[in-house]
Every structure is written in structure tokens, then in C-alpha cells.
Amino acid sequence: MFHPQLDSFPTDFLWGSASAAYQVEGAWDADGKGPSVWDNFVKIPGTTFKSSNGQVAVDHYHRYQEDVALMAEQGLKAYRFSIAWSRIFPTGKGEINQVGLEFYSNLIDELLKHDIEPIVTIYHWDLPQALQDEYQGWESRQIIEDFTTYAKLLFDTYGDRVKYWVSLNEQNVFIMHGYMMGTHPPAVRDPKRMYAANHIANLANASVIKAFREGGYSGKIGPSFAFAPAYPLDCRPENILAYENISDMSAHFWMDVYAFGRYPRIMLKNLEKMGLLPEITESDLALLKEGKPDFMGLNYYQTMTVANNPLDGVGMSGEANYTGEKGSTQESGMPGLFKMVENPYLERTNWDWTIDHQGLRVALRRIASRYDLPVLITENGLGEFDTLETDGTVHDQGRIDYLQHHCLAIQEAISDGVEVMGYCTWSFTDLLSWLNGYQKRYGFVYVDRDETSEKELTRYKKDSFYWYQEVINSNGQSL
Ligand code: BGP
Questions:
Q1: 282: CA distance to ligand 1 center in Å?
Q2: Is the ipTM beyond the 0.90 threshold?
Q3: In principle, which of 27, 285, 352, 409 could form an S-S bond with 61, CB 3.0–4.6 Å?
């Protein structure tokens, strides 16, 4: 469809797709790789759907050439992947594992051979277990130095070929899940420890960006933030306040630190009152100011709608939907602050994630207006059941519709004036969903395996593969 009122996508727009090491690589203990906290966490009964794990995942470690060939066939302009820290430093620091370094070097060369821009995520949650054991990982300031040493090695080794770096992937998610909800490693449920670990993660993020600047590397660097823009249920002032609360707590609390190097004052005051304020020194604040990113990485999946929640209202304990049984998500909220409510205008996926393409435009607009930064969309996609037909086809029209609407929302945001550098769908091949197993699929490429059997791990192109091929080929004109 032709939209005369819309601007075109820029000619250098990065049409991409994304993955993360633990979710695709497998080879969890191959060639000198050390264990990560995820390798161990998944062994605890009840932590993941049907005890699924990434030991083999979709075996990208051994099949990366086949996967890159598929990317090239699709015409992908960029591929975002993460580096497993414990493949490079098996114990998180000290001795370097050359074979690990080589794997990513080969992957980068393979991508460049096909004119695919590598976008490298330095940290996508798979902390070396050794650092968790030695000093409790993100709870110790020691990690700032170790994370920076690791990142510098990546800049030095790959900086001649990699122009786009993502520092931390979804700090808000791995910190909240890891230290508040207890659903990610290290499975802590303690708000005080959560806010303390979060502050240290902010410092580590800033330190790596500072090192990137000081090292004079060329290219751009920024964090990827999981931004679910909030809507108030309606214009009842109590609900507007709930919206203000969630915006400060779930968005500004992280993005203000990245972009401005400071915490929102309402949050500081509240954390202090609750006795949850972490130690924040003058030199911390100076470091945060030096760690400003070149872009905001945006992982967008859905919006959330909130309403007033009285002091004796619902808490955070509600069960989430990790089974794909629609409607199984329970109510949750923070008493006195907000509660999540259903948005009557939006459809939901089988995992109860709202489907809201306009929310992407809203997210882009909010980032541009508040932070005045370019945005690299580092994740967006639809996790759903897919059916492999006997003839090897997969008709994922729902995914095509989802992506099409989201791409148009990007084009609208560009027309509004937002600088969008690129769009990485989640994901290129099907992969392991951390807590949801293999049945929640996101890829353009179906990988034949499930929770109980690895089967042959054969790759099949879904209908969406060809659809995106045409979008890229026409630089968005075919939308
Ligand atoms: C993001 C993560 C990804 C990916 C995606 C989909 O939070 O950065 O790694 O997993 O969400 O989420 P899920 O796998 O839970 O459906």
C-alpha cells in the first residue's frame, strides 16, 4: 500500500533480526566455554517450561554458516547477536579462551561476507557462573571492572569490523526478574538487593560506554531497554496518577539514568522513604554522566494499561503465563501505586501479551521527545505457536500481520520526526524462549525441535521469511 503522507525509510535503514547466545547457540560446554548462571538455573526443577534449556538450543554454534546463508538469502541488512561472556572468559575474567573469541570472529566475517552488518550485544543475561560464585555477580561493584575488561577485549578484537554495540540487554528485565520476582537467576526476591544490583548494573553500563569513548573506537553504542509504554485505564485522576507512578518506576527509572545520568527525583524520594535507596556516591553520579549512549536500543513487544491500586490492593505475586494458555495471567500490581488491567481495545497473544502496533509509535515518540536520542529497535516480534505442514511450509500469517503493522508504525514515527536507525525483529530463527520453552516461536525460520526432542533441528522458511524479504528488498515500499 502506498502512503503518500508518510516519509520513506532512510536508504541506510538497518532491516535486521536478532538473537541471543543462550537462546540459539547450544554447545553450552564446548571448546572451553565456562558455565553461565543460566546453564545452572535451568537445572533447578520448575524454573522453566517443561524444564527446557539451552544446552543444544538450535545449535547455531555449529550451524552458523547455514543460518547466515539464510539471512543472506532473505537480504537481511543487519543481524544482532550476543556474545556469551563465559565463552570468552570461562571464569568471567583472567584467562582468555581463544576458541571462543574465534567463534564470534568467524561469525562476524561470515556476516560481512554477505554485507550483513553485525550488531553485537555484549551482555544478554548469561553471566559467568564463576562471578556469581565469587562475589554474587551484579551485587558486587567488582563486576564493573570485570565487565569493562571483557567489553574492552571485544572492542579491541572486533572493533575493526563491528560498528554497532549494545551494552546491556534489558537491564530492567534481568534485574527485576533476577532480584525481585525470583524468576531468573540468581532467583532472589528482595527489593533492597534488587535496587542495589540495579545501581551497580547502571555503573557497569556507564563504565563500558565510557571505555568505548576513551578507547576512540569508531561506531555507536547504547543499551537495549525493554520498554512497555504505559496507558492509564481512563481519565479518572487516580488512574492518571497510577500511570505517572508506573512511568517513573518502569521507564524513567532506567532510561533517565542512561540518557541524563541521573535518577528521577520522585523515585529517589520514594526509595529513600522505603529504606530501599542504594548507596550512590558523587563519583557514581560522575560516572553515570560520562556513560551517555549514542542511541537508545528499544525492545518493544507490548503496552501496559494501569489503574489505581489501593494500599490493600493486589501485589506482585500473580502468576504469569508461561504455558501459552490464553487468559492464565493473574492480576498483579503494587499496592498504593498501580495495578495492571486489561486494555479493552487490544487483542492479546496466547501468552497474554497485548498486540499494539501504535504502542511502538508511542514508544518511539516518547523516547525521542524525552531523550532526544536516535533509536535502534533491537527487538520486536510475535511469539506464537506455529505449525510445520507436511510439505515443509509454515503459514504464519499472524506474524506477517503483526510485523507489517509494526513496520508501518515505525514509518509513521519516522514521519513524525523520530530518528530510527533500524529495526531488528525478534527473532531470525526460532529459538529458546527463556521461561516458555521452544513452543513459543518468533522466527522467520522454523527450527524443527521441541521441548522433548531435538529431532534434526532442520530449518524451514516460514511465509514471513518471504514477506520480510520483500519489505527489505523494497526498503519498506511494499508495506
Ligand atoms: C526479551 C529478551 C529476549 C526474548 C524476548 C521474548 O525480553 O531480550 O531474549 O526472549 O524478550 O521474550 P520471551 O522469550 O519471554 O517470549
A1: 35
A2: yes
A3: 27
